[in-house]
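Q: Can someone sanity-check these two? First one:
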Amino acid sequence: MWPTTRLMFQAREKFTRKFRKLPLTTKDINKGFYKGNRTGSMGRHTRFGGYIIEWDKVRTYVVPEGMDSFKLSPFVTNKVQRTRGQYEGYARGPSDPQLYLERWKDENGLD
């Protein structure tokens, strides 16, 4: 017995109901879909394929008063010394396969 069209559409609707609530991605839609990041346009397209910037739409950031003499500091200090690994006895240094296997056995505890 063949299912009626009504039953077929009900079954399809049950499978796609959860999918409809998910946000769209570029893999869900055919080509030409651009999601963007909700920042808005800064101009308009011309009919010849160019783009005209409308300067009243361009975002500008005003620096608060007193911040012109502010000095930024790095996240990591420059006084940290770089540590070097010890690879004596390994022909290829840190990319030696024997070193990889030994470290894997030490860290995982398996054969």
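And here is the second, same format, sequence then tokens:
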Amino acid sequence: MDLIFYRLIDNMLQKYKEKGFSKAQIKELRKGIESDLDISKYDDINLSSEEMFDIRWKLTFEKYEEGNEDYERKKLSRNTIKTL
């Protein structure tokens, strides 16, 4: 990653710093941006950094689960079981 990319991330995180997010929360938001996740799902100031960490990892696993070849088959089987 180049310096320009990090500066763009810093600019994005500036609004969270102004809102009063802690350094640990900012760190979790940064990791989410670097992982190309939708940080709007966990950018609540009332969440602790530990809760943000858990949500970030859940989103990461979901992101890569969708790329898995068996994902659609599992999704179909879950829906079939629900209808039975």
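A (reply): Looked at the second one. The chain has one domain: 3-83. DSSP finds four helices and no strands in the chain.
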